[in-house]
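Bench log. Compound arrived from synthesis this morning; before running ITC I wanted a structural hypothesis for how iron/sulfur cluster sits in the protein. Inputs:
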Amino acid sequence: MKKCFYLETFGCQMNVVDSERIVSLLGDIGYQQVDEAEQADLVLLNTCSVRDKAERKVYGHLGRFKPLKDARPELIIGVGGCVAEQEGQKMLDEVPYLDLVFGTHNVHRLPELVQQAEEGNRRLSLTGFLDRETRLNLFPQRSELDTVTRFVTVMQGCDNFCTYCIVPHVRGREVSRPSHEIIAEVEALVAQGVREVTLLGQNVNSYGNKEEGEINFAQLVRKVAAVEGLSRLRFTTSHPKDLSDELIACFAELENLCHQLHLPVQAGSNRILQLMNRGYTREDYLQTVAKLKKACPEIRLSTDIIVGFPGETEEEFAQTLDLVADVGYADAFTFLYSRRTGTEAAALEDKTGARIKQQRFERLLELQQERSQQIWQSDLGATLTLLVEGESKQGKGQLFGRTTWNRIVNFAGPSELIGQLVDVKITKVFRNSNLGELVS
Ligand code: 5AD
Ligand code: SF4
């Protein structure tokens, strides 16, 4: 009988891609994925530590598996990802029924750990960063998914050290993959039926900057866009300080580059931006936005914002509100500042009370939701082009695709349309998705 594993993934797309890798690696050693932990011989959590809430969730989830372990002591329980990287052995000390801990640079060694655990060698922890060469040799991150859209990692890690952020501490320094490997991977994916790729990295805009003789990100985007058969291209995440004019020009020139960009601003006040070590001013950011809108008038932007950074005053917060109103984001992901041990900001004095922070958070949310709704409602009645991704959860004969703005639209249509670009008239706009009718 095949052995079974259950995997839960938290956090960003990096973790999603790492989880695809985990599925593939475990398949190689005879494990099959199941939807219920109760049926599994191996239970894994791929974790996120970007905010305290995400981290606490991990411990909460592990607690859920304790009764399973009590009933079946042979069950193997493992934790990977950013919390694993950060906590390492400490997690084993704190959670007596945990068997394996594997950090962000050690996903490739999971099969080895699992086999050891099968043989009775438990309570193993593997963390710490690999050198650049070893990391680059671990690509491409093969997976056998049968999907229309895919993420392709172009760089890993981060050198920016925003003062609030744990990522550089748990994912290591920036490395960029050779561009010829990335192009070859995109070509192979397209040959296999993929129609849209999202180039992925913690800060894709600094792609290639540290590698001698490598092309820059704008050049990479052009090369990927030119891969024959690729209907659409996106990239994430962009750091505003590294978004070049050359890259902005791509939005005007490349037909298959989607008119959507995630451009985290984090705060609207220059003093806070500086304390965050973001490397740009409010004015720089607004100028970049103006350039983007000029190059591509229909572009829709999304952002990340942190509310309640240590010492943020009411006036400084009001500058964030003002910037949000000014830019007109289609979506914004808003977060309450969360103190992360090991980051620079953790040492800053923070006198603002939790209640005030919460009120600010709600004010921002209200403003943003109003803005988002205005923008998305304006699509009602419009005919938009979708890349059809698959059958929708709504039922038989229902498909779903995405607009250039990455908005999900559900509509009725035959499954032969999967993988194709089709025109759909928008008939209903919900909070997070739309309903449409195929235009023949
Ligand atoms: N507290 C709150 N939000 C954070 N983010 C990163 N670190 C923190 C933190 N310590 C947010 C940023 C980032 C997004 C992925 O998470 O807005 O862009
Ligand atoms: Fe974190 Fe800043 Fe790097 Fe983004 S750019 S991962 S926020 S340190």
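What the model suggests: The two ends are 49 Å apart (CA to CA). Residues 50-51, 164-165, 264, 266, 304, 306, 335, 337-338, 340 surround 5'-deoxyadenosine (ligand 1) (CB under 6 Å).
ITC booked for Thursday regardless.
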